[in-house]
Design a protein that fits this description.
It is a single chain. With 338 residues, this protein is mainly β. 14% of the residues lie in helices and 49% in strands. It is rod-shaped and about 110 Å long. The protein starts with a helix and ends in a 7-residue tail after the last helix. Bound molecules: calcium ion (2 copies).
Length: 338
């Protein structure tokens, strides 16, 4: 048993050494271009962000060329400058920006660059260095891959070298989060104690990235209802309907507000008030009497799309003023409180 284990261990050791040796020998012989650093993080309101494209394990290079693709809703390419690599050979160099194009296609921009040694060159450049520094302006929150493509390395004889390894990079742009409650609308202004009512809250994402947040509605300072994990893309609005069950709430006037959390900035709106009273007190004057009966009668058989709809007369909140509301009113007739 022990012998078998030792054999397995020996075999594993042999194979891992083989893998390490193979990958090392491959890495040493293959020139590799990479976005440097592999990941850069920047705020969306920064004026610019620069990244390098660098090379290692170069051998006898006299010219290089590549394209780099980026997400054009996240980044705008501003400029590119030559790095130190090819100038290390001592000869003059010619650096050419073939393309700084935000609109390569509907989603991506492309930077295409070329650099060669000038004159009658016998020796290229070996080793490592920076090929170029590319500067972008961040546009909006999100991630953009920086994809290296169409890599060319040439020797002084004008021969193309292969293979070339490459490693892409990423620019992560942190967008601004700006969630605003733009309206808080209680769907009735008078509610019978013990009944439920709806509150519509309109929320707008004024930032530059999709945000996920929660919204809580309040009566005075006490929470009514919370909607969790609302996801809203930038520039868009949504209406969330909350339910306020007034059971266990005292009679009286309440100021209604909505608040988004956790988000930075001013995200609370106080808008509208609701009077909690005896069921049937449609008028909201602390007594159920003939005036309330008249208001109910005026709205009898209506629904929310009716011209004479009175949401306060829909005492049980089922979107119709009918006999059931009249019965509730009758059951509380002549009741009052101070
Ligand atoms: Ca009344
Ligand atoms: Ca009703």
């Amino acid at each position: 048993m022990r012998k078998t284990k030792s054999l397995v261990l020996a075999a594993l050791t042999f194979f891992s050494s083989l893998i390490i040796f193979t990958s090392c020998s491959k890495a040493v012989s293959t020139p590799t271009e990479y976005v440097d650093p592999p990941q850069t993080t920047v705020w969306s309101n920064a004026t610019s962000v620069s990244i390098n494209v660098s090379i290692i394990q170069a051998v006898n290079v006299s010219g290089w060329e590549f394209s780099l693709y980026y997400v054009n809703s996240i980044l705008h390419s501003i400029t590119a400058t030559e790095g130190d690599f090819l100038a290390k050979g001592g000869a003059s160099t010619w650096f050419w920006i073939g393309e700084l194009n935000d609109n390569f296609n509907s989603t991506h921009g492309r930077v295409s660059l070329t650099c060669i040694q000038l004159g009658n060159i016998s020796n290229g450049v070996s080793g490592s260095g920076t090929l170029t520094t590319i500067t972008f302006q961040p546009l909006a929150g999100g991630n953009s891959t920086l994809h290296l493509s169409d890599l060319v390395l040439a020797d002084p004889g004008g021969n193309k070298m292969t293979p070339i390894n490459s490693f892409d990079g990423t620019v992560r742009v942190l967008g601004t989060v700006d969630i605003a409650i733009t309206s808080v609308t209680p769907l009735k202004t008078v509610v019978g104690q013990g009944y439920s009512m709806k509150i519509n809250v309109t929320i707008k994402n004024q930032g530059d990235q999709t945000a996920t947040f929660n919204v809580t509605t309040y009566a005075n300072t006490t929470a009514i209802d919370t909607a969790l994990n609302i996801s809203l893309s930038n520039g868009n609005s949504t209406i969330v309907t909350f339910t306020w069950n007034t059971t266990d709430w005292s009679k009286g006037n309440y100021t209604i507000s909505g608040s988004a959390w956790p988000v930075p900035g001013n995200n609370t709106l106080v808008d509208g008030s609701v009077f909690v009273t005896i069921p049937g007190d449609i008028k909201g004057d602390n007594v159920v009497d003939i005036y309330d009966a008249i208001l109910l009668s005026n709205a009898f058989n209506t629904r929310p799309d009716s011209s004479n709809w009175n949401p306060n007369a829909d005492i049980n909140g089922d979107n119709v003023v009918d006999i059931y509301d009249a019965i509730i009113l009758a059951n509380h007739y002549n009741q009052h409180y101070t």
